[in-house]
Specification:
71% helix; 168 residues
């Protein structure tokens, strides 16, 4: 079995369990919910097949939906990020980089990685809360939820990425 596939499957299980059992219980000030499962999609290599990214994204979204009791919301938002991730990654990678480059702070640089992770996280949080609310009746509350969840999720993504880079 491929080592990368085994690592990816382990990350899948860990992120699904952490999101379902711990992070779904966190609602800071009643509005900010960390949606850390977007980190799984951010970490796909540059030449990873697009159909593979979509399949992994959809599967993780379905698992998170099962734990969260949000039918289709997590899978739709994560699949959207999975569909856009290869194109966003191409925008921030240098042309002379390796074909199988992994998007990390080390390989992309701090600023480019923060931009890349911010765009992926913003797309995921906006689509997640738009599908969850399914209405813009109370748009001020929606904006507060999106903004605070985006900031909290981005802080968690950057913290985890920093811890993983320190370990290597």
């Amino acid at each position: 079995m491929n080592y990368d596939l085994l690592k990816r499957f382990g990350a899948f299980i860990i992120l699904c369990l952490v999101q379902g059992m711990i992070l779904n219980q966190i609602h800071l000030f009643g509005v900010a919910t960390p949606l850390l499962f977007v980190y799984f999609v951010i970490t796909f290599h540059r030449n990873y097949p697009k159909w593979g990214i979509l399949l992994w994204s959809f599967a993780l979204g379905v698992c998170v939906d099962t734990f969260s009791n949000t039918p289709g919301v997590g899978s739709a938002s994560l699949t959207l990020v999975g569909a856009l991730q290869p194109y966003l990654l191409e925008m921030f990678t240098p042309r002379d980089s390796a074909e199988d480059m992994a998007p990390t702070m080390k390989t992309m640089g701090l600023a480019k990685y923060i931009y890349f992770a911010s765009i992926c996280t913003l797309i995921e949080t906006v689509s997640f809360f738009a599908l969850e609310a399914f209405s813009f009746f109370n748009w001020q509350q929606w904006l507060i939820c999106v903004g605070s969840s985006f900031v909290l999720t981005l802080i968690l993504v950057l913290t985890i990425e920093n811890l993983i880079n320190k370990r290597q």
